[in-house]
Amino acid sequence: MSDGINRRTVVLATMMFLEYMAMPVWFVPMLPYVKSLQGGENWTLWCGLIMGIGTFASPLVGMFADRCLNAERVLAICYFSSAALLAGAFFVTSPALLFVMLLFVMFFYMPTWALTATVAMAHASKDAFPRIRIFGTLGWIASCVFSLAAAAAGFKTFDSSPWIFAGGAAVTFAAGLFSFVLPRTAPQARGTPISVGDALGLGALVLLRDRAFRSFAIILLLAMIPFQWYNVYCAAYLKDSGYQYLTTTMNIGQVGEIVFMLLVPLIFRWIGYRRSLAVALVVLALRNVFFAISSAYGFAALDFCGIVVHGLIFGLLVVGAQMYVDEVAPPMLRNQAQGLVNLILAGVGVFASNFLFDAILTSSSPTPWTTAYLVAVAISLATAVYGLATAKSSK
Question: Quick one: 39 exposed, middle or buried, by C-beta within 10 A (0-12, 13-18, 19+)?
Fold first, then answer.
């Protein structure tokens, strides 16, 4: 029994490793690359939105995994489709066509965040999930291997070349192959009637009738505005600040995430999910204070401080949200529920974040980065106050 459990844990950990290695290879340096293309300046906002738009497919794909096909098989379909599109993106030089291709990549890739969480928690205990999820962090860190290998070979412009898409395609294809050894995760609602809402992947909206879940969803949505601002725009900020190895620099945050992820279950037991969420928001505000000061006065050390605390924020906000939803959602809705949370995390939040901060960055302000980071501070603190106000009965 022990050998079986150990083998399954290794399989799930490898799944997470490949899942989160596949995206940063190309997504982190994407905006600077698009900006370098002829006419690319006009497409940076739209390319920054591909994560948010692509996430709208998550509840629909989740419904398919809940009712029609094993989750690991749905994963394979999503991975192979993403890999093919990324391989095609390597040859595209038109920013408009590149936007379209990368958008379709995200329609297939973003639902895999929810699917891998469901597969992992279906075959591991709740306390084991953060330890398994750590390997996703290791995968994110390992994504810089392409950039470092290219630099060692004398190709120091990997992060600003189309080879980022070739690297992403290779890892995503490997993830698709690995899906065939994942444990079987059968649809829990197979054979049940499908309503129009289910067909659209919206069955999990019923969870919003619960006051506690509704409050959780509101806090999570507001938190994603400053949180996703970091994920989408930090590479552009670092490039404007003179940094060269963008993926490698941002991966410092993932190194700290390894430690913080182990603490997530303990923190939830000590202070409860709601208070943990408020702590994450306070730290999120502090991170943006660091970036605001550095962008105004050039303190590089504060940039690194802002990057290091990413792991604590991510663990409490994102991984914590996935664990909370797995606990409260009915088994027949778990894939859709994870898809709904994924939509909040990387969909609606990304939209709001991109439009708000793009408007600030394209304003006539002489210090747009500083202004944007101060706005992020204000949103984070306001959301933390709301989170604490709704946490009275949480333990």
Answer: exposed
